[in-house]
Amino acid sequence: MTDQPAASPATPPTMPTPAGTPVDHRPLDSLLLEVRDLHVSFETPRGPLHAVNGVDFDLHRGRTLGVVGESGSGKSVMSKAIMGLLPRRGRTVGGSVRFDGTELVGLDDTALREFWGTEMAMIFQDPMTSLNPVMRIGRQITESLRMNLADMDRQTARATAIELLSAVHIPAPERRYKEYPGRLSGGMRQRVVIAVALACGPRLLFADEPTTALDVTVQAQILDLLQEQQRERFMAMILVTHDLGVVAGRADDIAVMYAGRIVEYAPTRTLFASMGHPYTHALMRSIPRLADPSHTRLDAIGGVPPNLVDPPRGCPFAPRCEYAQQRCLDERPELLTLPEDPGHAVACHFPLRANAPAEAEVG
Ligand code: SF4
Fold this sequence. Notes:
It contains 12 helices and 12 strands. With about 375 residues, the protein is of the alpha/beta class. An 8-stranded mixed sheet has the order 6-7-8-3-9-10-12-11, with helices on both faces. A 4-stranded antiparallel sheet has the order 2-1-4-5, with helices on one face.
C-alpha cells in the first residue's frame, strides 16, 4: 500500500495538454461527436448523386471508430462532410453533426475555421499533396500553430514544432525542422503530416487512408504511431480505410459502409468474431492472410457497387450478394440491432450471424 492520496471522484481526469494549448477540463469519456441522419448529395448532369444516405453514430472522447468500405462507399465524403471540408458548390448536406454540443451543419467557413486544427484535424493518404514542397518542414508546423493559436510567439512555436517532430519519432528533429519535404522518405513525410495535424491539439482526428501510399512495413509503423498519439492525447479518432486488416486491433468500434450507408456497426471484437452482413464477410475474405500459401488467389467481391444517381429500390448489395432473395430486391433493409446482441447492428434481412431478421431500430 502506498501513501498516495486517493483520486477525488469530484475531479474527473482531464486530457494531457500538448504544448501551447489550453488545459481541457472536460471529462475524458464524454460524448464528443453525434452524427444523425447525415445525407450528402452532389449535382451531376444525370441528377443528384446520393453519396451519403442517412448515417448515424456517436463517438466518445478517446475512442477510435474504424470506417471501412470500398472506394465510393461514402466513407471519405462522410468524413469531409463532418469536418465541413466539402466544396460548397453543387453539393447538399443534410442531417445533423453535433461536435461537443455545437451543430456544425449549416455553419459557414468562417465559423468552421474555429474548429479546424484546434478541435478537428484530418490526415490524408498522400503526404506529398498535404505538405507544401517548397516550404521547410518546421515552418509548415509553426504556421499552423501561429494561425490557430494567435498569441503563440515565434520561439515557442519553434520549440513546440521540434517537440512535435520528436513525438512522431522523427530522428534529429532540430535538423529535420529546416529541411524540405522532398528530402524525406514517404513514411517520414507522413510523420510530418501527423505532426502538423496534432500541432494544435485537436480533440478529433480523421485519418483518411493514412497508409495507402506507403509500403507494408512503414504502414504498420504509421498506424502504431497514430494509435500511440491518440492514446497519449486522449483524442477521438475516425480511421477510414478500405482494409479491414488496418482497423483490426486498432479501432474500438467499426462501421462498415456500402453505397453511402452504414451496413454493419459493432465493437471490433464482436465484428471479427461474428460478422453479420454478407458485404463485411466478403470484405474479410478479400484480405490476404499470412497463413495462406503463396500464389493463393484472393476472393475479390464480384460485380460493381450500385449507381448512386439511381440507387436500387431494395438492398443495394443484392446484385453482388450470394444470399439475396426476392425480399432483398423489393425492400431496403434498415440498420437494426441483432436480437441477441444490442451492440451489434446489421442492415440485412438475413444476417449471417443470427440467420434471422434483426429487430430493434438503431437510433
Ligand atoms: Fe444480401 Fe439480402 Fe442481406 Fe442484402 S438484405 S445483404 S441482398 S441477404
